[in-house]
User: Which sequence fits this backbone?
């Protein structure tokens, strides 16, 4: 069985450069600096479906994503004040990790973001601009 | 500065045996099999406040907690169907990781559990029974 990404994880997001374990998606939602990491492991739904080496690689990818989310917050003009990192999967079971930048003035603070409110679409041009800023070559 | 736990992380929970990096609290909420892990690292609020070795130790503790949450769900008569693992910290900034067992018939499914609904207190005797079942000597 080859690795496939659930289409629900592809919607309203764009791909960034892949990380060692994970595919990375920039979410199209101007409310938050928000990346989703998807480990390229067939059939994984829980963290402990990964081997220990894969879990360590995931933690390394999440740590890199945390830096990127802070860069993204600055590029959106809304520097991140708190990170929210979560592997939930109640709606889409395929293992994925949200790395979200939060601010005290964001529309859902201090509540979690999932399942609440409506996304604020950035539009293709702005999404492309933000994605370019996160490319490894961008030196952010 | 010595390590201290934010009192809000101590409320409505009981201590279980400490893990290599983290203190572990069993939450007093009959709606969910729910543990909170608190890395014993002074001043940490974000995952990347930890060293890489500490992050790996955290992932190991989370993996062990995932097994314990499944044991807990069985002991509560509500076997876990999906794990939710999250480091949020919007209300209590001190770094802590929730490991929560979810079921399709739980009162908040598929939404996240934080900031919604009222806890269902288990009572001291039931909380103590569940905590005993999670002791390393219990062989669960």
Assistant:
């Amino acid at each position: 069985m080859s690795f496939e990404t659930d289409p629900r994880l592809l919607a309203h997001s764009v791909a960034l450069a892949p990380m060692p374990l994970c595919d990375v998606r920039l979410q199209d939602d101007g409310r938050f600096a928000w990346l989703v990491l998807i480990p390229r492991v067939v059939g994984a739904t829980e963290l402990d479906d990964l081997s220990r080496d894969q879990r360590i690689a995931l933690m390394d990818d999440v740590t890199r994503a945390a830096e990127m989310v802070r860069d993204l917050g600055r590029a959106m003009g809304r520097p991140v004040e708190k990170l929210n990192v979560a592997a939930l999967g109640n709606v889409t079971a395929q293992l994925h990790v949200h790395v979200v930048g939060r601010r005290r003035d964001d529309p859902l603070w201090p509540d979690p973001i999932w399942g609440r409110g409506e996304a604020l679409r950035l539009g293709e041009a702005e999404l492309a601009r933000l994605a370019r800023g996160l490319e490894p070559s961008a030196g952010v």
In short: Chain B touches chain A through 32 residues (CB under 8 Å).
